[in-house]
Design brief:
about 35% helix; about 25% strand; transferase; Acyl_CoA_acyltransferase; GNAT family N-acetyltransferase
């Protein structure tokens, strides 16, 4: 049986990261300009408490998933919160534990610095992801609003 490996993104992952993130954005029917790709990649390797971080998942030495996450202050806790911003598993690798392993990696990394609250959002129509999320996390019932 193949084993999933989760590790922090490395500079050498750029092509795989770009492919997976593009597929994620395509899934959500979104396109971003090249400048956003460039600044996001740069930020993933910029030191700083609130800079985004990332993991990549491999299966049989092929990159099959990614996640981006970041820490932010909260008025409800002394410790930061962790927002799991992006999570994607290649459709060919779904059902093999990639998404759950990426979530667990973020949870474990946050736990190393005492952060207990790891949270994320998904679209209400994303039934595949919601099946996983309902299994590994608690649904809060909050509804998102934005001013874009």
């Amino acid at each position: 049986m193949s084993e999933i490996t989760i590790r922090p993104l490395a500079q050498s992952d750029h092509a795989d990261w770009r492919r997976l993130w593009t597929d994620y954005l395509t899934f959500y029917e979104t396109k971003l300009p090249e400048e956003v790709y460039a600044i996001t990649w740069k930020r993933l390797f910029t030191d700083g408490e609130f800079e985004p971080k990332g993991f990549i998942a491999t299966l049989d030495d092929k990159a099959v998933g990614l996640t981006h996450y970041l820490y932010h202050r909260s008025g409800w806790s002394e410790k930061n919160n962790c927002y799991l911003q992006d999570l994607f598993a290649d459709p060919k690798a779904r059902g093999k534990g990639v998404g759950a392993a990426l979530i667990k990696a973020v949870q474990d990394e946050a736990g190393k610095i005492g952060v207990k609250n790891v949270y994320w959002m998904t679209h209400e129509t994303n039934a595949t992801a919601r099946r996983l999320y309902d299994h590994v996390a608690r649904r809060t019932g909050f509804i998102e609003y934005d001013l874009l």
